[in-house]
Amino acid sequence: MVAPLSPSQEDYLETIYQIGLKKRAVRSKDIARSMKVTRPSVTGALQSLAEKGLIQYEPYEFITLTPKGLIAARRVVRRHTVMHDFLTKVLGICRAEAEEQACRLEHAISGDLTRRLALFVEFLESCPEGIEAWAERFNCFRVGRRAECVCEASTLHAAAPKSADSKSK
């Protein structure tokens, strides 16, 4: 089991993973350029990740994720993707803002919350009306036109669990 990673270490793993998808060879200068950091900062981070067994790293050589590093990187990417989808598809946040927020939130959400958010988005996408209709009603509610956006009472009653009092009637 890998010791907990800092948000910065997770960002480096995510960056290495993303660069590796585009280019087979990942170099420290590519990481520095992508993350907008100095090469000495990259070197320190790479040494730390190598000590944790997450990457193969030798100065002036290509950087590769180890099997443990690949698993950790995919988890970070998954949390980022799920959070980005939730922010854009459900809350209607613009892509640029969602990207920025997903980068922050991906380090704080648990695996369980990630699964639940992904399932919630999937649930909304599977609704007959589609996620767009739901998101439109939510936006209407959010901007203060709540009376126009109330869910149908019949839908709420049909979905609500029966109380002990109503079952005995």
Short description:
With 169 residues, the chain is mostly helical. The protein contains 9 helices and 2 strands; from the N terminus they run αααββαααααα.
Describe the protein in words.
- With 169 residues, the protein is mainly α.
- It has a single domain, classed as Winged helix-like DNA-binding domain superfamily/Winged helix DNA-binding domain (Arc Repressor Mutant, subunit A, Orthogonal Bundle), CATH 1.10.10.10.
- 67% of the residues lie in helices and 2% in strands.
- The protein contains 9 helices and 2 strands; from the N terminus they run αααββαααααα.
- It has helices at residues 7-22, 28-35, 39-51, 67-90, 95-105, 111-126, 130-142, 153-159, 164-168, and strands at 55-56, 64-65.
- Strands 1-2 form a two-stranded antiparallel sheet.
- Helix 1 crosses helix 2 (28-35) and helix 4 (67-90) packs across helix 6 (111-126).
- One of its GO terms (molecular function) is transition metal ion binding.
- Going by CATH, the homologous superfamily would be Winged helix-like DNA-binding domain superfamily/Winged helix DNA-binding domain
Total E-strand runs: 2
By helix and strand content, what is the structural category?
Answer: mainly alpha
CATH topology term: Arc Repressor Mutant, subunit A
Q: Residue ranges: pLDDT <50 for 5 or more in a row?
A: 153-161, 163-169
SS strand fraction: under 5%
Q: What is the count of helical runs?
A: 9
Profile the largest sheet. 2 strands, antiparallel
Terminal residue distance? 56 Å
> What number of domains?
1
Order of helices and strands: HHHEEHHHHHH
Q: Which range best describes the helical content: under 10%, 10-25%, 25-40%, 40-55%, 55-70% or over 70%?
A: 55-70%
CATH architecture: Orthogonal Bundle
Q: What best-fitting shape do the alpha-carbon axes yield?
A: elongated
Strand order of the largest sheet: 1-2
Our Rg estimate from Cα atoms comes to: 22 Å
Query: What is the overall pLDDT average?
Result: 87
Name of the top-level CATH class: Mainly Alpha
